[in-house]
Amino acid sequence: MWRRVASLSPMISSSSRSLALNQAASGLKLGESFATHMINPEERASPPKEKAPFITFVLGGPGSGKGTQCEKIVETFGLQHLSAGDLLRREIAMNTKNGATILNLIKDGKIVPSEVTVKLIQKELESSDSSKFLIDGFPRTEENRVAFERIIRADPDVVLFFDCPEEEMVTRVLNRNQGRIDDNITTMKKRLKIFNALNRPVIDYYKNKGKLYTINAVGTVDDIFQHVLPIFNSFEQFKESRHVNPKSTISSSLVESSS
């Protein structure tokens, strides 16, 4: 069963705490030259494929419990888990040229350009033999969303939003004895403020498109998962796939627009 990958660098963790809302807006632009350097303009969009993969986005603030629910979804329905944060950390750990540049951006408190993150996701989608993907914690911003839809040329089939009261999320993070060792009430409230400011437009967008499923994230892990089960059971490809991890080949080119 998939486990969440621990942070490889304290500098990565500290960057999001230091992120101010005005940096979020300006940082998206200042990395454009880096994105252009890393990405061949001719490769910006994937050609259409015969059958689009099933894509789920999972959103929720720190302490919402989405990480635990991602594990249960992957285990139960056989989706391949992808995390934008994990992909960036892996790129840094592999000490590639791109990884070094990503690390320098993060150390400077800058945002990694959306095109860079999406290209890493695209690479995983293309190289996998799975046809069902769960993308955890992405898109974080409207700019992330637009880049994903432009490059991958697909909408998600499902967007899960784990909705949890702020007080509950703060309590969970401070009591779970993992994650950021310097978390406190003040830093948590800042993180939640940033999350709400950046992520709410994404949530509202998919709500208006009829793709958003809001999950009441209060209760035990099993109680919350009972709200998740009917969502996937409503899709034909999941009705017979409980408790298995099927693999089906998808072509290396991505993906026919589902809009």
From TrEMBL:
<dbReference type="InterPro" id="IPR006266">
    <property type="entry name" value="UMP_CMP_kinase"/>
</dbReference>
<keyword id="KW-0963">Cytoplasm</keyword>
<keyword id="KW-0067">ATP-binding</keyword>
<protein>
    <recommendedName>
        <fullName>adenylate kinase</fullName>
        <ecNumber>2.7.4.3</ecNumber>
    </recommendedName>
</protein>
<dbReference type="Pfam" id="PF00406">
    <property type="entry name" value="ADK"/>
</dbReference>
<keyword id="KW-0665">Pyrimidine biosynthesis</keyword>
<dbReference type="GO" id="GO:0016301">
    <property type="term" value="F:kinase activity"/>
</dbReference>
<keyword id="KW-0418">Kinase</keyword>
<comment type="similarity">
    <text>Belongs to the adenylate kinase family.</text>
</comment>
<keyword id="KW-0547">Nucleotide-binding</keyword>
<dbReference type="InterPro" id="IPR027417">
    <property type="entry name" value="P-loop_NTPase"/>
</dbReference>
<keyword id="KW-0808">Transferase</keyword>
<dbReference type="InterPro" id="IPR033690">
    <property type="entry name" value="Adenylat_kinase_CS"/>
</dbReference>
<dbReference type="InterPro" id="IPR000850">
    <property type="entry name" value="Adenylat/UMP-CMP_kin"/>
</dbReference>
<keyword id="KW-0539">Nucleus</keyword>
